[in-house]
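Fold this sequence, please.
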Amino acid sequence: MPSQEKILHINGLKTYFPVRKGLLRTVAAHVKAVDGVDLEIYRGETLGLVGESGCGKTTLGKSIIQLVGAVGGQILYHEGEQTFDLLNLSPEEFKHIRQKIQIVFQDPHSSLNPAFTVFGSLQDPLKLYGVKTKAERRKIIGDLLEAVNMRREQMDNYPHEFSGGQRQRIGIARALCVNPEIVICDEAVSALDVSIQAQVLQLLQEIKEARGLTYIFITHDLSVVEYISDRVAVMYLGKIVELAESEALYRTPRHPYTQALLSAIPIADLDRKSDRIVLEGDVPNPVSPPSGCAFHPRCPKFKSLSEPEKQRCMGESPQLSDATQLTQPHLVSCHYPN
């Protein structure tokens, strides 16, 4: 079970991408991919991060490890008695953090260099963090391959010699080779067949328990999130709109957007089946998001509100706050949560 010890504290994180126009390529606007995210991640938990394509979940994951530069906010990493603000570290100081926070990329094929064997791809981080002899590196990589249910001798093969599921296992082994504390899984099973997905998810669970890892699991597949996550954060247009324990969020979703996402999950049990909530329109342009609540142009509840309530939704941005006042917080960014 996850502890209540914070390992990562994200405060007001903003990641914007400039939109350039004209002959001089001047900055005309910004795409607000991550727009003021607040999030606490506890040691030993699996936090699921879900939402539609383009909601900012992958950018949030890459911002944490500074593969994408954030423009504001704080990312505080807690290691024992020390706290590091990841946005204010020098490259040399951040080298230590890269060992502690690793990522498994979405595409298992393009994330591996086709010119290198598995050993060639995995040995560089080991060299960087002090494993000097080749014999030691081969032993560590062989042990890692066995930990992800592959054979030691496969370290001398090239990426094109493996299936998609095997390549993803190699990606997991690469993330583990420097003994991290946090692993960001960015759509780690979305490119795999359903049967292979189940194997990789089971593998991730076993590795987490054996090594005491903390996962940030980014996906658009709500069925996968329900299986693997302790808590779930739902993102919409660069903001978190709902955050709760997995069981509570799936049993009683509070935000209309979460309700619409959950209604789209295929369910074979007719007794559990609910009416599909179809959202109208497209996701708004993140360059110029709607005023007030960004979800109000697509919200199924908006039409049934009174005129003063509609004005509040259009003019006032809701804050992420506890909607239930129960023992376990259920945070919702909505003026009128169910």
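The mean pLDDT is 88. The first strand starts at residue 6 and ends at 21.
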